[in-house]
Amino acid sequence: MAAPEIDISQLSEAQQLALQQYTSVTDQDIQAAVPLLRRSQWNVEIAVAKFFDGEGPDLVAEAVAAQNVPPPRAPRRENLQQNLLRGQINALREEHRPDAAPRIVPQPESQAIPQPSILLAILFTPFQLLYKMIAAPIRYFLYLFPFLRIFPRNPTTGTLRRVNTSGRRPLSPSDASQRVQRELAEEYGEIELPWSNVGYATSLDHIKREFSFLLVVLISPEHDDTSTFCRETLMNPEVVAFLHDPNNMIRLWVGDVRDAEAYQVSTALKCNKFPFTALICNTPEVGSTAVSVVLRNVGPMEPTVYLAKLRSVHATRSSQLETGRANYALQNSERNLRREQDSAYERSLAQDRERARQRKEAEEAVQRAEKLKLEEEANATLLAEKRQQWRRWRASQVLSEPGPDEKDIVRIALKMPEAARVIRRFRASDPIDELYSFVECYEIIQDGGSSEKTPGKPSDYKHEFAFRIVSTLPRVVYDIADGGRIGEKVGKSGNLIVEPIVYHEE
Question: Which of 481, 474, 478, 484 is nearest to 499 (CA)?
Answer without folding.
Answer: 478
